[in-house]
Amino acid sequence: MQSPAGALERLAAHSAEGFPNLLAARERTAARLAEMRLRVAPVVLPADSSIVLFGSWGRGELTAHSDDDWLLLVDGPLRPQHEPVVATLRELLGAEDRKPGTQEIFGAAASAHVLASRIGLDEDTNRSLTRRMLLLLESVPVAGDDAYERCWVHVLNSYLEDATKDFRPPRFLLNDLVRYWRTICVDFVGKQREDEEKWGLRNAKLRTGRKVLFAAGLLPILLCERHLQAAMRDFLVEQLRAPATDRLAAAFAAYDLMDSGGRALDAYDRWIGMLGDDATRAELAAVRRETADASDAYARVRRSGRELETGLLALLFETPLVVLVREYGVF
Amino acid sequence: MPSAVLTQPGSLARHHPLGTSTGALVEQRGDWEALVCEAQRTSTFAVELAALSAGELPELLHFLSAAPALPFHFISLHAPSKGRRLREKQLVAMLLEVVRCVDAVVVHPDTIDDAARYAALGSALVLENMDSRKHGGRTAAELAAYFAALPQAGFCFDVAHAASVDETLAEGERLLDSFGARLRHVHVSSLDEDCHHVPLTAADEERFAPLLRRCRDVPWILEAPLREI
């Protein structure tokens, strides 16, 4: 498969409107990343550290309401000298309503070595799994790029050291990605039982952005089946460094599924438009399970989510990819 | 569990999601519970509840208003295309009553007098391309005005209708080129000499394959039972 770079723009010709919301979000993200780099430039970083943004920053899908989900990512163990940097960043980032979420996944320091060395077993907490997966799938540095590069490759290498063979998808990475996706789905219900306050937005994100995250991670891992073990790392670096929507668009193009790809990403584009619309976002924020059927915004999300999903399923099951999904996707 | 038909040989039967139109289920006509039961034998994923004549619509709406437990992931409602006794305003008002219960409301463009009245159905409205007997809505050029008037509307591609208009299928390609981005579902069948839906023939299945390949991500609705294999 060709490099995913620019694939979304190429697929735009097969969409209803040319993905206006996605392409505008990319421009917005690029501009805001440049601002962010200037904002954190005065922060004195230890040589082993980088400031990394996650989520919509990494996907290139920033809206006016996106959180500043950041980590001080450290290439080595955490040390006392990292603490004042974290304190400074807490002052500097996440102003007003853009604070990182309340689960303490972001807004802190994290050792990439810990993330890489504790994959699986009890010490691999939900937080650790989330940080590691999002680092690989949707992260971008705004300072300390060299340290970020070392951390990113270190985490990827930790997956490729085991259970990797020529012309086989790397099982360790594949299983952890699948575990992460299923964890998100299970945790959705767990959170729902604790607190229904954000049910509408959480549900909407599960139907849309989370599926894009998972599918865009799954595809390059499955496609390692075409590579010698020695070439997998470079292939995965090229793929995973591209925005998720580019990875998906490239896959739709590679399998001659341009019409379906256009419709799927058009549905996702509508979702990005909804996220950036104050009224729609407010309506979704107010939706609860028992009121969902009465919400126009929720109905639109459900439809977009369904259209996105059917497109992704066509890609996975109605192209030659189906043999890879059958061989590796279940057991 | 997948329905038995999904395990039959033949590429059509392997498509997912595949569903049936209750309009093809003549024996159960008028008994919506029986129609739904029969439709589940094709698939529990997709269905088209067809009130093809105006007299069937009130009973279908009554059936849906009772919020029956239906297994289908995708439900389209086919609005009346013949014997219309309702005023258009009244018809749209009735369709609006159930628009939240379904994923799509299929309307034949040649039955539309005032497109503006249908705008209230929003993106649930789906316009279908017509067969060669009709006087409008058959080609991309004829449908363009309807979609211009109803920009939120989706497209239902009836592959047999397209073939009846142009047996080279170039018009089918044009329809997908023009409105493929709006595509919401596909009607699958062959047509007899009078343009009635009949089971898809092996020859048509092969002939339509390039068009259907462009529609792999959307539900395919059988407008006639599958032929015996």
User: CATH homologous superfamily of chain B, by name?
Assistant: Divalent-metal-dependent TIM barrel enzymes
Helix fraction of chain B? Answer: 25-40%
How many helices of chain B does DSSP assign? Answer: 9
Ranges of chain B with pLDDT <50 over ≥5 residues?
Answer: 1-9
Mean of residue pLDDT values of chain B: 91
For the sheet with most strands of chain A, the description reads: 4 strands, mixed
Low-confidence stretches of chain A: none
Report how far the terminal alpha carbons of chain A are from each other: 25 Å
Radius of gyration of chain A: 19 Å
Kindly report the oligomeric state of this protein: heterodimer
Shape of chain A: globular
Overall strand count of chain B:
10
Keywords, separated by commas or semicolons:
heterodimer; A: 331 residues; alpha+beta; four-stranded mixed beta sheet; globular; B: 229 residues; alpha/beta; TIM Barrel; eight-stranded parallel β-barrel; 10 strands; 33% helix; disordered N terminus
Describe this protein's structure.
Chain A is of the alpha+beta class and 331 residues long. Chain A has helices spanning 7-11, 20-40, 56-59, 83-92, 112-117, 126-137, 145-160, 171-194, 199-207, 209-223, 229-240, 244-254, 258-275, 278-286, 296-317, 321-328, and strands at residues 49-54, 70-74, 108-111, 139-143. A 4-stranded mixed sheet of chain A has the order 3-2-1-4, with helices on both faces. In chain A, strand 2 (70-74), helix 4 and strand 3 (108-111) form a beta-alpha-beta unit. In chain A, helix 2 (20-40) crosses helix 13, helix 8 (171-194) runs antiparallel to helix 10 and helix 10 (209-223) packs antiparallel against helix 11 (229-240). The longest helix of chain A is centred in the middle third of the chain and has 24 residues, at 171-194. Chain A is globular, with a radius of gyration of 19 Å. The model of chain A has no long low-confidence stretch (mean pLDDT 94). Chain B is α/β, with parallel strands linked by helices and 229 residues long. Chain B has a single domain (4-222), classed as Divalent-metal-dependent TIM barrel enzymes (TIM Barrel). Chain B is built from 9 helices and 10 strands. The longest helix of chain B is centred in the last third of the chain and has 12 residues, at 202-213. The A-B interface holds A 14-17, 257, 259-260, 262-264, 266, 293, 299-300, 303, 306-307, 310-311, 313-315, 317-318 and B 15-17, 73-74, 100, 103, 123, 176, 180-183, 214-219.
